[in-house]
Write a structure and sequence with these properties.
The protein is mainly alpha-helical. The protein contains eleven helices and four strands. Helices cover 42% and strands 4% of the residues. This is Reverse transcriptase zinc-binding domain-containing protein.
Length: 280
């Protein structure tokens, strides 16, 4: 979303997106820290008494020589922008018309994320090496799910061994399968987080943050996706070896398995902070 300036009485000068593609506080973070009023509206910093009107920016101190150039860049960005007697308005930045359309919003949400390989979210200290290697393979889409076996020429019915509802792929098995989502929803529910899941394992790892859990538990929080991936794999293998799942009614975690999983996570939150290794 973006703002179209009218009177300027409803748009924050520093923190709203109204001048360019990002907020001025992000484009000029140093000047933002020096602002006399960081919550000022646009109209607060516009002086109608200067000729035909002009900017009257206020800062908490005079500038050093090396800071003058930053002010010049800010004024250049503001050049040509004037307030008017119209009301401020909001427009949709995701489409060419400026009006919100469901189709444009869906296309924007459905586009693939351009992310770097999340190596720091895979090689997590104190996590078992086999779990990290499995996550590394899953991130590259190299684990042997049914869709990949079909590509190798195997004549198999491609149906997820866990949910028995959809075709099995790496991303479906580890993220979007209804059985796997039980674990994801339980973990996220413990911390009161609602999350719209990305499409791929790579995007999940890249997006998995933990600022709300504190610094002491952040390393453990980073390891949770790895443990969930591993437990889903073990359940899928159990069903495949038993001969159930994909051709029948699917699988699922029993209450005892879920309880054991969370007990291990609880113990892991302390172990990862030490010099030991968590083993599943």
């Amino acid at each position: 979303m973006g703002f179209k300036v009218g009177k300027g009485n409803k748009i924050s000068f520093w923190t709203d997106v109204w001048c360019g593609d990002s907020a001025l506080s992000q484009r000029f973070p140093h000047l933002y820290t020096l602002a006399a009023n960081r919550n000022a509206k646009i109209e607060d910093l516009w002086d109608q008494n200067v000729g035909e009107g002009g900017w009257n920016l206020r800062f908490i101190r005079d500038f050093n020589d090396w800071e003058v150039g930053l002010v010049g860049e800010l004024l250049q960005a503001l050049r040509g922008i004037r307030i008017s007697w119209e009301d401020d308005s909001i427009f949709w930045r995701g489409g060419g018309s400026g009006q919100f359309r469901v189709k444009d919003a869906y296309s924007w949400l459905d586009r693939p994320m351009e992310v770097n390989f999340p190596k720091n979210r895979i090689w997590v200290g104190r996590v078992s090496t086999k779990i990290m290697f499995f996550t590394w393979e899953a991130t590259w889409g190299k684990i042997l799910t049914l869709d990949r076996l079909q590509k190798r020429g195997w004549q198999l019915l491609n149906r997820c061994f866990l949910c028995a509802c959809e075709a099995e792929s790496v991303d479906h098995l580890l993220i979007h399968c209804t059985v796997a989502r039980e674990l994801w929803d339980l973990v996220l529910g413990l911390v009161g987080v609602k999350w719209v899941f990305p499409k791929s394992v790579k995007e999940v790892l890249y997006s998995w943050g933990g600022s709300f859990v504190g610094k002491k538990k952040k390393k453990f929080w980073s390891s949770i996706p790895l443990f969930i991936f591993w437990m889903v794999l073990k359940e899928m293998n159990r069903l495949a070896l038993r001969g159930g799942g994909g051709g029948g009614g699917g699988g699922g975690f029993s209450n005892s398995e879920v309880q054991i999983f969370f007990c291990l996570l609880y113990l892991g939150s302390f172990v990862i902070s030490s010099n030991s290794e968590v083993r599943f």
